[in-house]
Write a structure and sequence with these properties.
The complex is a heterotrimer.
Chain A: H1 2-10, H2 16-36, H3 38-58, E1 66-72, H4 77-88, E2 92-97, H5 100-108, E3 114-118, H6 122-128, E4 132-139, H7 143-168, E5 176-183, H8 190-221, H9 223-228, H10 234-262, H11 272-297, H12 300-317, H13 330-336, H14 340-353, H15 358-382
Chain B: E1 16-33, E2 36-50, E3 53-57, H1 64-71, E4 79-84, E5 87-88, H2 93-99, E6 101-103, H3 115-126, H4 130-144, H5 159-170, E7 177-181, H6 189-206, E8 209-214, E9 225-230, E10 233-238, H7 240-244, E11 251-255, H8 261-270, E12 274-280, E13 283-288, H9 294-304, E14 308-310, H10 315-329, H11 335-338, E15 353-364, E16 367-378, E17 382-387, H12 393-400, E18 408-413, E19 416-417, H13 422-426, E20 429-432, H14 444-454, H15 459-472, H16 488-499, E21 506-510, H17 518-533, E22 537-541, E23 553-558, E24 561-566, H18 568-574, H19 585-601
Parallel strand pairs in B: 3-8, 3-9, 6-7, 7-8, 17-22, 17-23, 20-21, 21-22
Antiparallel strand pairs in B: 1-2, 1-4, 4-5, 9-10, 11-13, 11-14, 12-13, 15-16, 15-18, 18-19, 23-24
Chain C: H1 2-18, H2 20-40, E1 48-54, H3 59-70, E2 74-80, H4 86-91, E3 97-101, H5 105-112, E4 115-122, H6 126-150, E5 158-165, H7 172-194, H8 196-203, H9 205-210, H10 216-244, H11 254-278, H12 282-298, H13 311-316, H14 321-335, H15 343-367
Helix pairs in contact in C: 1-10, 2-7, 3-6, 7-10, 7-11, 7-12, 7-14, 10-11, 11-14, 11-15, 14-15
Classes of the chains: A alpha/beta, B alpha/beta, C alpha/beta.
Chain lengths: 388, 603, 369
């Protein structure tokens, strides 16, 4: 009886039942290892939450309460009404100063981000020629914030014009007014687009970093050598790794999506099914990358370094998660097409904020599928049941 | 105690002589790294017959692991043919791997899994049907003695238990051929014996064939057949007896009084016609290059101060003789002759205590790693610290070097309290560890330079010491070699040179000979003997029990305490019984350890 | 003592530079990061894709739209003729915004002196949306000024004259590139120091070092100085590249800059050595370095201003040495801040560095066993 079983194995034609049994053994082993090794739990569950909180709170491009120095050389009713419209805005925190010298000093010392300067002739000019100049000086070092502040200043100024016109009983004489309609994120909260993008970065870390490290660990500890000299086929070894870490990655995803919706109150307008389908494809691509890295590195240290350099930083900078891809120079735009996170970021931002938009989901989903197939088959092609 | 069934001479022809389970034909294998080609195996041919234990013997770097991996289909040979159970190992590697059992050097146990879960995994992988498992497991657990530990995590097992579990995992579906790569390395003598008895049972009861590699020459005697591998080439194949017979009449021994044996051994090993001289108990064993003429015997007896007696040859003798003849062919000088340049220092203060350890305890949390250890070492003494893995010898060692403070107790090295002035004590000691911890990517010269500056040598003295190190350890031709690429024997020399750079009074050696070939080991002990004669105090740990004979005194440790302390003769006499009138050091060691285990297990 | 420390420093350099892998880690990733960050990390918008939906038959509508066409920031991708075409274009992200000129635009402008133009923006990336809206407004303003002048309309009662100091063209590269000096210097010093003790522990050479007459403080010094020298070198290369390749102006003095670099390196090396003395393996060292680097970068104001963070996170940033260094770099590069004005940034780094090094020394002594 036993002999028969043995001889079946020796033919090198493992039965289907044998394959399932081997796979079950490998998957069970992997899960037990994950459960008993706190560091993989930490990477899969603690890290996403910590990163999400850190990035979610730490990364915000929304400037509010920007400190502005106000220098009014000759206070009057006119200047008061002008300043009043700035005071009402939640974007500004006004700091009244008595002269320009003080204001410039404050700007240099970073106590204020800008200066509103109303000259002594403000009221006079306003009455006589109808266009009193208001000087706004901003600290332009942080160009992005400076631009946003310019926009806020313009907004406050327009509001003031409107109020002036109404109080004078004349209709507003602005020839063309812009009526803005912001779709998907009408309050323009930066969290709403940063947090979905973050999920892509975190999934890259779980998928690629974790897989690369655990595969490399098997090589390092010599467990791989013992595994290879069993009837197990190499695709079974790979599958036995992919299945548990896929499940783990999806767990991390659920946790991240839950945090995004529950804690950061990001709207989820699209369907959860699309979200998970796209993330699964991405996770497969990331797992494939991890696999490839571990095959190249074969030790945990090098695998970790490569994983951080080739997965984390590109996912962070080149995925369109913070920086707009369309504004990058074209060679760099070309490079971004090689980064799976780019496609997931596009899908996530759409599914969260816009809903199911087939024209975004299908092409990006197809790209993810292609990348998953590419990386997994490269990984399969590069692994042998040999040590060389 | 497990009785070890020795396959003595008459059983040498067991098995079916003409059925080759495993056959290597003219196999070559090269590795290329850093634009350097190394020949791992050159034209290796041998066969393993069904139902036998074949031993693959050779020092580190001889190509044993490469050979095992080739047989398992994990590597491809550059030339030649390997047939495993009638199949081609290269073309049909999947089928080969599905059939054989293979235990790599560091068997890949999943440390986070329990003993039983590890077995489950391999049972799944090997396709053992569920209904057969419980019976198979209980057989394996009974055989390996792991039955009480099935729920323990593999990471928590001792080294010997891990090896046994590894063996059990490869045996879940009893394979016709078992490849074991150094299963006994790093395992204490008791577990070594148990592993061997398991292997014998498998061969006798299940007609398994076994290819087993080992560093230990004494284990060759346990094999039906031996293949000697050296620098990638097969030096010989045959039953152990066939290696011994050419040496009949060339092996002799002289009895020496206890205090002088190292001196006399040193003199004898340099004498003309002597291939090998080792200390064995109260005697020095000699291997001569030919049957001695009466004049030669007389002059040797004169040198030793006692008459020569004939002794039966051992496997090790032939191995050394074989290596020596190859080395001298390569024009390498005998190390022993070079040491004469060292000045002989009088040992006036011989009674001075240099190392004092009193009532030292060290705990890690609840675990008492070292329990009330007390001993003293005098100037110029060679003191050995022996014990199984986890016995506490490394902890004791680290405390003496000032790397670890003791929890309680007194430690004085060179009259300095290590707890108070560790740095001052360290300036007077040299240290060499089993890993030969040099900076691998630095050259030999850069390593020597570094350590000379670290020990505060400067000006002429530094130049002198550097020149001394290069000359004494024959490193001159290798100054620019990257030390990671050196052969193990040279790494050992370089490590010793670095440790001796500042002429320390005390030398700490932590398993200094592990993994190096027997010739390098002998050379190494020559240096140690010579240093001791100059008045340097040497403290050494080792797991080669025959090396314990070189020590003036030794302590045997188990579970943190000293079991026995004394000269080698005193220790061996503890195990003397009517059954064992002349116990070897290994037998004495096993006797003491098992006695302690019984004491611990008893009520 | 100095001979020993010098020997250790020489050895560290040999070990680092002779190993191709660690040479690679010191040289290649920083260069790639510099280029990628320098070019990719920009908030400036060029080529904003937009679509036009013009229902107005008059000339005024065309005139307004010409303003968009002539702007370097915008790129017209489509002319729409149906309301229903707007949504798919934005959904697909083919256009970031759609300018909709209604059928009564010219008529309203002529009769009521006022008309409105609708701009629909994709808000999925709120920052991009805000910036794009800013560009739209300035184009419409210019149109308004011209139209008002032509038709003798009274000017608005007040005119804004906006100027930006230190970075008049509001180039975000000027903002990002000095930050990269901090980023890469930190990454490299962390990799050099955080792994150095762990590497020796793994290779077994650490015990060898400990049984020599070295005192723990000397070993620490010998490990810190190579990281310092490499850090200074790396920072210098990046500063030079920032000035001569990316053309970022350097208005302040080199003395102030290098005081900042020195203090920052001291505090970064302190953290690195702390991780180093805690880590047993190189892998732990790497993970430790990673878990320090990510928050340190995020909370430094490198990519997003600290002022935008919630106040409790702003308090956390006070212990981040990189936060102060970021201020110093931008202050010295773009604002030409004098030494004295930066004292408030210098002393916290000195304190952090001192505490870190002391802690590292203490941990080192403890972890010897």
């Amino acid at each position: 009886m036993k002999r028969q079983e043995g001889s079946k194995g020796t033919l090198g034609e493992p039965s289907r039942g044998g394959r399932l049994m081997r796979l079950r053994g490998l998957v069970r082993k992997e899960f037990l290892q994950i459960l008993r090794d706190p560091s993989s739990i930490a990477i899969a569950f603690v890290m996403p939450v910590v990163l999400l909180l850190l990035f979610g709170y730490g990364l915000s491009l929304d400037a509010e309460h920007v400190p502005l120095a106000v220098v009014v050389e000759e206070p009057s009713a006119e200047t008061a009404s002008f300043i009043g419209s700035f005071q009402q805005s939640r974007y500004f925190e006004l700091v009244p100063l008595s002269n320009m010298r003080q204001a410039e000093q404050a700007l240099r010392e970073h106590r204020v981000k800008g200066i509103i300067y109303l000259r002594e002739n403000f009221a006079r000019q306003r009455r006589s020629i109808g266009a009193a100049p208001v000087q706004i000086i901003l600290n332009g070092v942080d160009a992005n914030t400076a631009r946003l502040v310019q926009g806020y200043v313009n907004g406050a100024w327009e509001k003031w014009l409107e109020l002036e016109a109404r109080s004078n009983g004349v209709p507003l004489t602005i020839p063309v007014q812009v009526s803005e309609r912001v779709w998907f994120n009408s309050e323009l909260r930066s969290q709403d687009y940063l947090v979905p993008g973050l999920i892509a970065v975190i999934m890259t870390l779980i998928g690629a970093l974790l897989t690369a490290m655990v595969m490399a660990r098997e090589w390092e500890r010599g467990t791989m050598e013992a595994l290879l000299v069993t009837p197990v086929a190499i695709q079974e070894v790979l599958l036995g790794k992919l299945v548990p870490y896929f499940v783990l990655g999806m767990g991390g995803l659920i946790l991240s999506v839950g945090t995004a919706v529950g804690l950061f109150a990001i709207p989820l307008r699209g369907s959860v099914i699309v979200l998970f389908a796209a993330s699964s494809l991405f996770l497969l691509a990331a797992l494939g990358m991890g696999l490839l890295i571990s095959i190249v590195a074969k030790n945990q240290f090098v695998a970790g370094q490569i994983a951080i350099i080739v997965t984390f930083l590109p996912a962070f900078i080149l995925s369109g998660f913070i920086f707009d891809i369309g504004s990058m120079p074209w060679p760099i735009q070309m490079i971004t097409h090689l980064i799976p996170a780019r496609y997931l970021v596009a899908i996530l931002q759409t599914v969260f904020l816009a809903g199911n938009v087939p024209s975004v989901i299908w092409p990006n989903g197809a790209a993810l599928l292609l990348m998953a197939i590419l990386f997994l088959s490269l990984g399969r092609w590069k692994s042998h049941k040999r040590l060389e | 105690m497990v009785a070890l069934p020795f396959p003595c001479e008459q059983s040498a022809r067991v098995g079916e002589p003409d059925v080759a389970i495993l056959e290597f034909r003219q196999v070559c294998k090269d590795f290329v790294s850093r634009r350097k080609r190394t020949h791992a195996l050159r034209n290796v041919s041998f066969r393993v017959r069904r139902g036998t234990v074949t031993g693959l013997i050779g020092p580190d770097g001889a190509g044993k692991t490469t050979l095992m991996r080739l047989a398992a289909g994990l590597l491809l040979a550059d030339a030649g043919e390997i047939r495993v159970l009638g199949r081609d190992a290269a073309a049909d590697s999947l089928a080969v791997q599905a059939t054989i059992g293979y235990m790599p050097q560091h068997f890949g146990l999943y440390e986070e899994l329990t003993v039983e879960e590890n077995l489950d995994l391999y049972a799944d992988l090997q396709g053992v049907p569920e209904e057969q498992r419980s019976q198979r497991y209980s057989e394996l657990m009974a055989m390996t003695g792991l039955a009480p530990f099935t729920r323990r995590l593999a990471g928590r097992l001792s080294g010997g238990m891990k090896q046994k579990l590894g063996l059990a995992c490869t045996l879940v579906r009893s394979p016709p051929l078992l490849l074991l790569d150094e299963p006994t390395v790093g395992v204490d003598p008791v577990s070594r014996r148990e592993l061997w008895s398991i292997v014998y049972r498998l061969v006798q009861q299940q007609k398994m064939s076994v290819l087993l590699s080992t560093l230990y020459l004494d284990e060759a005697e346990h094999c039906h057949e031996v293949v000697i591998l050296h620098e990638g080439a097969v030096l010989g194949q045959g039953p152990p007896a066939s290696f011994r017979s050419p040496l009949h009449g060339r092996t002799w021994a002289v009895s020496i009084p206890a205090g002088k044996k190292r001196d006399i051994q040193g003199k004898l090993s340099g004498a003309p016609g002597v291939v090998d001289a080792v200390i064995q108990g109260e005697r020095v064993r000699l291997v001569l290059d030919a049957e001695p003429s009466p004049e030669v015997s007389r002059s040797l007896a004169e040198l030793a101060g006692a008459p020569l007696e004939p002794v039966p040859p051992r496997f090790e003798d032939s191995f050394i003789a074989m290596l020596r003849s190859r080395r001298s062919g390569n024009g390498e000088a005998k190390a022993a002759n070079r040491i004469s340049s060292l000045p002989n220092v009088s040992t006036d203060g011989a009674e001075e205590t240099v190392i004092a350890v009193r009532d030292v305890q060290r705990r890690f949390g609840d675990f008492l790693a070292v329990n009330r250890v007390t001993f003293e070492v005098k100037r110029g003494e060679v003191f050995g610290l022996l014990g199984a893995n986890g016995a506490g010898k490394t902890t004791t060692f680290r405390m003496l070097c000032g790397l670890l403070p003791p929890s309680t107790g007194l430690l004085r090295v060179a009259g300095i309290d290590v707890r108070r002035a560790a740095a001052a004590a360290r300036a007077r000691l040299g240290y060499m560890s089993q890993k030969f911890s040099l900076y691998g990517n630095l050259s030999v010269w850069q390593n020597l330079q570094f350590f000379s500056k670290v020990y505060g040598l400067s000006g002429r003295r530094r130049a002198e010491r550097l020149a001394w190190a290069l000359e004494q350890f024959q490193l001159t031709s290798l100054v620019d070699a990257v030390s990671a690429d050196l052969p193990l024997g040279y790494k050992q020399r370089l490590a010793l040179a670095c440790a001796l750079m500042h002429e320390p009074d005390i030398l700490f050696l932590d398993e200094p000979t592990s993994g190096v070939d027997p010739l390098a080991r002998r050379e190494f002990w020559h240096w140690i003997n010579h240093l001791a004669r100059q008045g340097v105090t040497v403290l050494v740990t080792t797991h080669f029990l025959e090396e314990a004979e070189y020590c003036d005194r030794l302590a045997i440790m188990a579970s943190g305490a000293i079991l026995a302390l004394g000269t080698p003769e005193e220790i061996k006499s503890l195990a003397r019984s009517p059954r064992l009138p002349h116990p070897t050091m290994e037998e004495a060691f096993i006797y003491l350890i098992e006695g302690a285990n019984k004491g611990a297990a008893g009520p | 003592m100095w001979q020993r420390v010098a020997a250790l420093i020489v050895k560290e350099f040999l070990a680092l530079l002779k190993d191709p892998k660690s040479r690679f880690v010191i040289v290649i990733p920083p260069m790639i990061q510099l280029l990628v960050f320098g070019y990719a990390a920009t908030y400036d918008l060029n080529d904003i894709p937009y679509a036009v939906y013009n229902e107005d038959p008059g000339a005024e509508g065309r005139e307004l739209l010409a303003g968009f066409r002539l702007s370097p920031h915008f790129r017209e991708i489509a002319h729409l003729s149906h309301d229903a075409d707007i949504a798919p274009l934005i959904d697909k992200r083919e256009a970031l915004l759609v300018v909709h000129v209604g059928p009564r635009f010219s008529r309203d402008l002529a009769t009521a002196q006022s008309a409105s133009v609708q701009v629909i923006v994709d808000g999925r990336n709120s920052n991009t949306a805000l910036l794009a809206l800013g560009y739209v407004r300035s184009i419409v303003h210019r149109f308004n000024d011209q139209w008002a002048a032509r038709h003798g309309q009274p000017k608005p009662p007040a005119q804004l004259e906006m100027r930006a100091w230190f970075n008049p063209n509001l180039e975000s590269r000027w903002f990002i590139v000095p930050g990269i000096v901090a980023l890469l210097t930190l990454v490299v010093t962390m990799l050099v120091t955080a792994l150095s003790v762990a590497r020796e522990r793994e290779q077994g050479t650490f015990d060898q070092l400990l049984v020599t007459p070295f005192r723990p403080a000397e070993i620490l010094l010998g490990k810190a100085l190579p990281g310092f020298i490499i850090g200074i070198g790396e920072a210098t290369v990046i500063v030079l590249l920032a000035i001569f390749w990316f053309k970022v102006p350097l208005w302040g003095s080199l003395l102030t800059l290098y005081t900042g670099i020195t203090l920052f390196l001291v505090s970064a090396i302190g953290v690195g050595l702390m991780i180093s003395s805690l880590a047993v393996t190189q892998q732990q060292g790497l993970l430790g370095a990673f878990f320090f680097l990510v928050p340190a970068i995020i909370l430094s104001g490198f990519a997003t201003p600290i002022a935008n963070m919630p106040s409790f996170i702003q308090k956390i940033t006070l212990v981040n040495p990189m936060r102060y260094f970021m201020e110093i770099l931008r202050g010295v590069f773009l604002e030409g801040m004098p030494f004295l004005m930066l004292v408030d940034q210098f002393w916290p780094m000195a304190v952090i560095g001192g505490v870190n090094l002391t802690l590292a020394g203490w941990l080192f002594r403890r972890r010897l066993y």
